[in-house]
């Protein structure tokens, strides 16, 4: 009988590839802006957009307006700049509707975990509206325990503050030792939960935080979620129902109707 009662996940670059998605979305956006009449090199524009996101944060809502303001006006002479901005925004949203999907193994593992007794949650840093939209679009929300989603914006506490993790445990009436946290960023996802006594799993897929070390060693390091299931079954005694043969989430294409304009 396992003593583990809950498993919490980081969202960005743990359940889906934020970095890969953001890169693709930005590339599609700058290409759409060029098509609409912006006379600039796509690589230069993409780099400039990367700087805007860095300087104004990923949650800023007018990246494309700022991108255009940084460029000489002659590069879009004769074209209404609002149309160029709209092309960038629309392409970004189109990319989101078409390509935002979870890591296949993460989705499959969550489906398996949904058939166990474990509470399944997310502890994530970001704006509530954006993080919630990701969970819905990734089709992960239905696989989670509804009361186990914790977003920094809603808590008034952000990573790496240990209070974020303490809050998740106390809200669900769990001792930290009965819980596990799974994340890709050692400093944000391993050190704080480990400090309050949660069990920790570092997922290292070669994402942007892969090389950064933690002060605390994680209890386990895995390369994907199949290995995570092995840890749960073999080391923690979680009773796992036999694996299903069904496929992962379908890629989905919807009509664009978003209003937020932030990048990633
Ligand atoms: Mg992350």
- Kindly name the structural category: alpha/beta
Shape: elongated
Please write the CATH class name of the largest domain: Alpha Beta
Question: What fraction of the residues are assigned to beta strands by DSSP?
Answer: 5-15%
N/C terminus separation:
41 Å
Tell how many strands the DSSP assignment holds: 6
Describe the structure.
- With 264 residues, this protein is α/β, with parallel strands linked by helices.
- Helix 1 (18-35) packs across helix 2 (42-56).
- The chain has helices at 18-35, 42-56, 63-69, 81-99, 104-113, 128-137, 152-155, 162-171, 186-195, 225-235; strands at 6-9, 119-124, 149-151, 179-183, 199-203, 220-222.
- It has 2 domains: 6-16 and 102-235, HAD superfamily/HAD-like (Rossmann fold, 3-Layer(aba) Sandwich), CATH 3.40.50.1000; 19-99, DNA polymerase, domain 1.
- The model is unreliable at 248-261 (pLDDT under 50).
- Bound molecules: magnesium ion.
- Residues 10, 12-14, 183-185 line the site of magnesium ion.
- Residues 10, 12-14, 183-185 line the site of magnesium ion (MG).
Topology, element by element:
Elements: E1 6-9, H1 18-35, H2 42-56, H3 63-69, H4 81-99, H5 104-113, E2 119-124, H6 128-137, E3 149-151, H7 152-155, H8 162-171, E4 179-183, H9 186-195, E5 199-203, E6 220-222, H10 225-235
Parallel strand pairs: 1-2, 1-4, 2-3, 4-5, 5-6
Bound molecules: magnesium ion.
